[in-house]
Amino acid sequence: CILTCIRKPHPQRSIIINFISLLDEYSLFTDLYFKAYITETTDFYTAESEEQAASAGADVPTFMGSVWVRLDEEQTRWKEVTPTYAFDWPEVLRTLEMALLKKRLPWMSVGVETAVNERNLPGLQRMYNLFGRVDGRALLCDKFKAHVYSVVGSVVRDQERDEELVDRLLEFKAFVDTAVSEAFEGNRSYANAAHDAFSKGF
Fold it and tell me: Do residues 38 and 95 make contact, with C-beta atoms less than 8 angstroms apart?
């Protein structure tokens, strides 16, 4: 298994590096190594993603943190093991992101609720960036809209704090506007979703 040989430094890694050099000499890198590497990367990280998401105590922030770690680790390994093939890294990165994230998007999108409730702009931005890398921003936008609608409705229905209604809505609206402009980079779909959620929620 290629990944087993190179994921952690050990004596077998040098064998792979020497093998790659040999393949390079005969223009066989793509057919005999790269295609297999992509396949094994997909299988390995799809399985790891499923295992982490299903593990006891798994939560979205922890999972997202592990994804960033994996991406950094793999980029470092690619540079060390295949230094002459930097131009192939974008395809490896795309494969990693799809394997780690694509099937987890519905579960991960719930994290937008926590991030909004905690007024966590960096967290929202990280989600926006990750979802964008695997064509998931429409799903994230839908979850963001639904939660904004829910929060607005909850504030409006809270009769015990009725005297705070205006201030609470203004504070939340200010945060949502900032989230759209900063965390979501002014994305018009998110701006429209927020506007619609406020209008209907109120």
Answer: yes
Say which residue the tokens 């002459």 belong to.
Answer: 84
What percent of the chain shows pLDDT beyond 90? Answer: 60
Residue 106 in contact with residue 135, Cβ under 8 Å? no
Task: Report which of 76, 61, 56, 71 is spatially closest to residue 8, judged by C-alpha positions.
Answer: 76
CA distances from 57 to 25, 60, 61, 65, 99 (A): 49, 10, 11, 14, 21
Q: Say if CB 191 and CB 180 are below 8 A apart.
A: yes
* CA proximity to 93, closest of 65, 74, 69, 67: 74
Under 8 Å CB-to-CB from 51, ≥6 apart: which residues? none
Q: What is the pTM of this model?
A: 0.81
Do residues 128 and 140 lie in contact, with contact meaning Cβ atoms separated by under 8 Å? yes
The burial class, CB within 10 Å (0-12 / 13-18 / 19+), for 186 is: exposed
Asked if residue 6 lies in contact with residue 77, where contact means CB atoms within 8 angstroms, the answer is yes
Mean pLDDT by 10 residues, the chain (202 residues): 55 80 88 91 92 75 84 89 87 94 91 94 93 95 97 93 93 97 97 95 78
